[in-house]
Each structure stands twice: as C-alpha cells, then as structure tokens.
Design goal:
The two termini are 14 Å apart. The chain is globular and about 65 Å long. Helices cover 29% and strands 22% of the residues.
C-alpha cells in the first residue's frame, strides 16, 4: 500500500480475465429421464476476453470486454477501472501472476495497488466463481455467429448477473480478505 493511504479508505477487489467465445463450454442440462440431450460444440476460434473486478464488501463490479489478454488490454482495463474509484478510496486488487499483471511495462494508477496470489492458486481468487456461474447460467451450450454476437451476449450476461443485488457479496466474499485496523 502506498504511504499515506489510510486503511479505512482501502477497498479489496478481486480481478481476473476469462475467455468467452465459439470454443465455449458444454455443461449439464435438464432433460427427460432416460434421454440424452444434445449440445452443439463449435469448432471455430473467435473469442473475446472479459476483464473484471469485483468488490464483495461493496457488492459492486466493473468489467470491460476486450479482444486480447495482454499488457495493452490490462493497461486499458486499469485506466478505465481507476476512473470509477471514488477520489477518497484506494483499491487493493487481488489478482494472479499472469504475465500482463506483473510486467514492468504496466503503469499502475495511483489509486490501485496489486496484491498477488501465490502461484497455482486460482481457488483463492473469488472472481473465478463468478466466471463459473456466468458461463453456466448464460453462456454455455451456445453457438455464436460472429464477434459482435459474442460481445452482445457477454455484455448482456454480465449486466444480468451483476445487477441482482447481493450476488457479488454472497458469491465472492472471503473471510480472509478483510481489512483490520
């Protein structure tokens, strides 16, 4: 945490990215007993990446749908997310150690500090549960015609999922991720 930041002004956020596209997920579905339901699996490779952050204590979230996962896209995400943070607040962003998170070329905004998770521990990043639920409820067992349809579907799914009051707080809260004076 930067010097001069009061602990009461710090908000914890969980950040990650997820790829969504034509090589999507097939998941379980309801079907009449004794039948085998069919699900279409595309073989094309068009996809988009959703960069997201959740703040369970505030039951809030922010996301951008971007074409790639790289330093340039991460910088764009951080710059846009930084603009949504109230002037008196500072975000401790819990994230993994993806190359585009730890690169020296990333210019971290002054109102954000990274807290890196241990290697190979995605279960500690609570936004992973959000990705799982988002894909399960809205984006699995689907075909997408083109990039525009992927963008539209991901945007609609994010808005529908995160607009339900209490969803982020109940799904993403972790007892170990709290600040104590």
């Amino acid at each position: 945490m930067p010097a001069g930041v009061d602990l009461k002004d710090v908000v914890i956020g969980f950040q990650d990215e997820s790829r969504i596209g034509q090589q999507g997920s097939t998941t379980r579905m309801w079907a009449k007993q004794g039948t085998r339901p069919c699900a279409i699996k595309q073989k094309q490779f068009i996809s988009a990446n959703i960069f997201g952050v959740v703040c369970p204590a505030q039951d809030s979230s922010f996301a951008l749908i971007l074409p790639d996962k790289d330093t340039e896209m991460m910088q764009l995400f951080l710059d846009e997310f930084s603009k949504t943070i109230p002037a008196e607040k500072h975000v401790a962003l819990i994230t993994d150690r993806a190359g585009w998170h730890i690169t020296q070329y990333l210019k971290t905004p002054k109102n954000i500090s990274f807290v890196f998770l241990p290697p190979y521990s995605p279960e500690l990043n609570s936004i992973e549960q959000l990705w799982q639920q988002l894909k399960q409820k809205y984006l699995s067992n689907r075909c997408f015609k083109n990039y525009k349809e992927i963008l539209s579907s991901v945007s609609s799914a994010w808005k529908a999922f995160t607009s339900v009051s209490g969803t982020i707080e109940s799904l993403c809260s972790r007892s170990w991720a709290t600040l104590v004076d």
